[in-house]
Automatic annotation (TrEMBL):
This is Acyl-CoA dehydrogenase family protein. It comes from Blastococcus jejuensis. Residues 6-123 form the Acyl-CoA dehydrogenase/oxidase N-terminal domain. The keyword Flavoprotein applies. InterPro entries: Acyl-CoA_Oxase/DH_mid-dom, Acyl-CoA_Oxase/DH_mid-dom_sf, AcylCo_DH-like_C, AcylCo_DH/oxidase_C, AcylCoA_DH/ox_N, AcylCoA_DH/ox_N_sf, AcylCoA_DH/oxidase_NM_dom_sf, Mycobact_Acyl-CoA_DH. Keywords: FAD, Flavoprotein, Oxidoreductase. Belongs to the acyl-CoA dehydrogenase family. Residues 129-223 form the Acyl-CoA oxidase/dehydrogenase middle domain. The keyword Cell wall biogenesis/degradation does not apply. Residues 389-418 are annotated as: Disordered. Pfam families: Acyl-CoA_dh_1 (PF00441), Acyl-CoA_dh_M (PF02770), Acyl-CoA_dh_N (PF02771). It comes from the Bacteria.
């Protein structure tokens, strides 16, 4: 493995740094110690930041030029992500649109859909969300129950989605529905683009442990979607969803993500707080910091392994699942050590000077163990795909959904997404 940039990559990195410096005054930045920004309260600035970056050629790096992208490589995309983190620019508001919805429209959309949506998506003129999970189908995604019934030139949609990140600020979503319950569960699905402002769409934010509301319940009551907004053929929704899920895997676990900044924050926090702890707590806190830093190094080197696959032109396979798993474990250990360093203040929502970042981070991290494939599902994928262990039983693959083929294993859990 060669961890250094090639001369081309170094030149590209220097160009990206130059552009970020030149546009610094127009971009939103995360404050010291912060790691994320709430989309609802900073929606306008986040949209503006993405537009500025898009105009500078720093968004849609791997998208083809004909779709408004830069025609670049996954390594270049990872370099941009690293430089944005270094410059403390928050994640793009339309990261789900760019990472998952846009690539799905590119692969399965009509020319009109591409023309209508892609350029606006890159500039965050429209924000997108992914409407897949339901109360009774997450890992077992293909068991979903939201229906779409053909009515003239439209489809009429009824049902409920849940955990829909960004639905509260989204203009469009990709929506997976059941259009034929008499076929086996993977075969009776159809995908659509849905206008989130259409009559009958209700978005209810879900308040999380840390107080913020990043994701939502979304209800569909007789929502009409024109047939021209279908993505792929009727009954081909699973094939279309696999495009989204494969891109989700690369977006979450596949490209140069690093938790370097949170570790630096932890070490600075340890320098400050350790002396105030009594001897026993100091020993435990030191061990927690040590464990977290080791886990972060493991995540970093797993990340370099993915990076090497990418720079040699490959697509990450199980490395992406391993990357998400190691990154999640490390991030949780970092947050736990940060809270432990607070001593008695750990039981408070914030320290006396109002600092709540460690408690807040510890509060939202469990969600990362679930989003885009749970830790258990990722371990199943690694067991089957890397270790060659026997696969899980999948008894309902051929049974009609309406006849009971609805409540067993499949979907994200069968390794088709991370
Ligand atoms: C922060 C966050 C953001 C999200 N954003 C979105 C979004 O934008 N759009 C969207 O559609 N969804 C989103 N989700 C939903 C997410 O994809 C699902 O929560 C996830 O796939 C798990 O599904 P579930 O919640 O139904 O849990 P379940 O699938 O019911 O799992 C419950 C438990 O059973 C375990 N389990 C399930 N199947 C297996 C198996 N085969 N083997 C071993 N263990 C298993 C799981 O690991 C878990 O511990 C988000 C979730 C979170 C937490």
């Amino acid at each position: 493995m060669d961890f250094d940039d090639t001369p081309d990559e170094a030149a590209f990195r220097a160009r990206v740094r130059g552009l970020l410096d030149a546009h610094a005054a127009e971009l939103l930045h995360v404050g010291p110690g912060e790691e994320s920004i709430d989309a609802r309260s900073h929606e306008a600035e986040l949209r503006r930041t993405q537009r500025v970056l898009a105009e500078a050629g720093l968004v849609g790096i791997t998208w083809a030029r004909e779709h408004g992208g830069q025609g670049g490589t996954l390594v270049q995309q990872a370099i941009v992500a690293q430089e944005l983190a270094r410059a403390r620019v928050p994640g793009l508001i339309n990261h789900i649109g760019i990472g998952m919805c846009g690539p799905t429209v590119i692969a399965h959309g009509s020319d009109d859909q591409k023309q209508c949506y892609l350029a606006r998506l890159l500039r965050a003129d429209d924000v997108w969300c992914q409407l897949f999970s339901e109360p009774a189908s997450g890992s077992d995604l293909a068991a979903l129950r939201t229906t779409a019934v053909r009515d003239g030139d439209d489809w009429v949609v009824n049902g409920q989605k849940v955990w829909t990140t960004l639905a509260h600020v989204a203009d469009y979503g990709i929506l997976l529905t059941r259009t034929d319950p008499d076929r086996p569960k993977h075969a009776g699905l159809t995908m659509f683009v849905v206008d989130m402002h259409a009559p009958g769409v209700t978005v209810r934010p879900l308040r999380q442990l840390g107080g913020q509301a990043d994701f939502n319940e979304v209800f569909f009551d007789d929502v009409r979607i024109p047939d021209s907004e279908r993505l792929g053929e009727p009954g081909e929704g699973w094939r279309v969803a696999l495009t989204t899920l494969m891109n989700e895997r690369v977006a979450i676990g596949g490209a140069g993500t690093d938790i370097g900044q949170p570790v630096e924050n932890l070490v600075a926090h340890a320098r400050e707080r350790l002396p105030a702890l009594d001897h026993d707590r100091q020993v435990l806190a030191r061990q927690a910091v040590g464990r977290a830093v080791v886990a972060a190094l493991a995540a970093r080197y797993t990340g370099y392994r993915r990076f090497t696959v990418l720079s040699q032109g490959g697509l990450p396979g199980p490395e992406a699942s391993a990357g998400k798993l190691t990154g999640t474990i490390a991030a949780k250990l970092v947050a736990d050590a940060g809270v432990r360093l607070l001593g008695d203040d750990a039981v408070l929502a914030a320290t006396a000077d109002g600092d709540d970042r460690w408690q807040r981070t510890q509060g939202w991290l469990p969600g990362i163990s679930i989003a885009g494939g749970t830790d258990q599902v990722l371990r199943n994928i690694l067991g089957e795909r890397v270790l060659g262990l026997p696969p899980e039983p999948r008894l309902d693959k051929a049974a009609p959904f309406s006849g009971g083929g609805s409540a067993r294993l499949g979907g994200r859990a069968d390794g088709s997404g991370s």
